[in-house]
Structure formats: C-alpha cells, structure tokens
Amino acid sequence: MPDESGQFGQGRQGVQVKLFALPGVYVPQRDTVLLQRALHRETLLPRAAVLDVGTGTGVLALAAASRGACVTAVDISWPAVWTARLNALLARTPVRVLHGDLTAPVAGCTFDLILTNPPYVPEPSVPPRRGSARAWEAGRDGRQILDRICRDAPPLLRRGGVLLVVHSAISGVGTTLARIRDAGLAAEVTERQSLCPATSARKSDAVASSNAPSPNSGASTS
Ligand SMILES: C[S@@+](CC[C@H](N)C(=O)[O-])C[C@H]1O[C@@H](n2cnc3c(N)ncnc32)[C@H](O)[C@@H]1O
C-alpha cells in the first residue's frame, strides 16, 4: 500500500523495499497480496524460470526473483515496463522486463511458474487501449484477458509447472478452472478472500493453481 510519499513497500526477507510507480501504473492492492501469498507457498527451485504476465510495478516479479528465480516480466503499458525496470534496479534484483501483449514477447520460451493478476473487472464498454483503466477493465464479462491467459499460458509451462491466476469471483472462477483443465492441466482454487463492499466488482478473489501433469500421471482433462 502506498505511504504518504506515494511509495509503497514490500517486506522481503525482513528488508523493507521501496517501490515506485509512474502515473497510471497499478499500485499493488489486495489482489496483488493474495497472489503474492500463493506465490510464497510455491516451491521455487534455484534458477527456476518464472514469468509474471502484467507485471505493473514488478512487485510480484521481484518477490520471485528475491528467491533466486530467473524472472521475466511482461506488460503492455510502457509506464509499467519502465516502473518495473526501475524497481528492479533499485532493489538490485535482476528481472528481465519486456514490453508486449501477454505472452507474445516470450514466444518459444518455457517456464516453471507463470503468475498473473490480469485485468478482470467487467465493464460495459470496450476495454481501453491506453490509460490506467487498462490495468483492470476487461470487457462485458471480465474475461477478455483471462480467456487468453487460460489458452496461451499452459503451453508455456514445463513439466510439473504451475500457473497462478488471481481474479474476482464475478468474472467466473468456474470458467477459469474449466478452461485451464481443457488445456490439460489440473486446476483448483487455492485461496479466497472477501474484499470490502466498496469494490463490489471484486467481491472475492480466487487463485487457480495448475500443475502440469507429468507424462506418466495420465493428464486429466474435463
Ligand atoms: C491488475 S494490474 C496487476 C499489476 C501487478 N501484477 C500487481 O499484481 O500489482 C494488471 C496489469 O496488466 C497489464 N496488462 C493489461 N493488459 C495487458 C496485456 N494484454 N498484456 C500485458 N499486460 C497487460 C496492465 O498494464 C497492468 O499493469
């Protein structure tokens, strides 16, 4: 959460790291924290390859990198890309931050863990092409980006890899689970959290975790 100077911190191994955000960049919120908790519970082998899709300030990318992972972060917003690069520099933590649309900048790469807190708030209007609202507006059903992630992320996972997604229950957790399972992964809700009524579009958040089945385990799809 931002402090009075507009900065916000992230506890990391007992060290308080200041993060900055250029105007219009999504400041970490409760969905960020929920996803960070889910990330924290995952085992990350040294040098594990991690992809953070829609990195914003880079807060989650930094959390993974601080655990020794090799992290690539992507964002479609240039201010977010520059913010995440700056925060990585300030934290003296290596993160490769790329500009582009979802997984397009990492085509041909594979990862042990992919995490994303994508735009998921339903809006009657067409999702904006620029501006801060691009961080949360996601079309009529809130699934404009989510459905693409469910389709595009699973093929990038290595064997035993994990996909972590956070979004509002209002955007259809069942649909997310079904789409991820259709992609051949096991999927479950690992965490739920009720948010304050003021943000009713985000009434509760869920994290779906998907383990790519090993070739011998008999991939179950539904
Ligand atoms: C809800 S914010 C999450 C930011 C950060 N990961 C966090 O949890 O605090 C969503 C981010 O996704 C980015 N984004 C939106 N559409 C995108 C797309 N098509 N490709 C890549 N990033 C996108 C936005 O610019 C924004 O930074």
Can you walk me through this structure?
This protein is α/β, with parallel strands linked by helices and 222 residues long. Strands 5-4-3-6-7-9-8 form a seven-stranded mixed sheet, sandwiched between helices. A two-stranded antiparallel sheet has the order 1-2. It is globular. It has one domain: 3-Layer(aba) Sandwich (Rossmann fold), CATH 3.40.50.150. The structure holds S-adenosylmethionine. S-adenosylmethionine (SAM) binds next to helix 2 and strand 4.
Strand content bin: 25-35%
CATH architecture label: 3-Layer(aba) Sandwich
Q: Which structural class fits the helix and strand makeup?
A: alpha/beta
Shape: globular
- The residue-averaged pLDDT reads 82
Number of helices: 5
Number-wise, the strands total: 9
SSE order, as H and E?
EEHEHEHEEHEHEE
Sheet with the most strands, sense and barrel status: 7 strands, mixed
Low-confidence stretches: 1-8, 11-15, 196-222
Total count of domains: 1
Cα separation of the termini: 39 Å
Strand order of the largest sheet: 5-4-3-6-7-9-8
CATH topology: Rossmann fold
Task: Please estimate the helix content.
Answer: 10-25%
Bound molecules: S-adenosylmethionine
Radius of gyration from the alpha-carbon trace, in angstroms: 16 Å
What name goes with the CATH superfamily?
Answer: Vaccinia Virus protein VP39
Provide the CATH top-level class. Alpha Beta
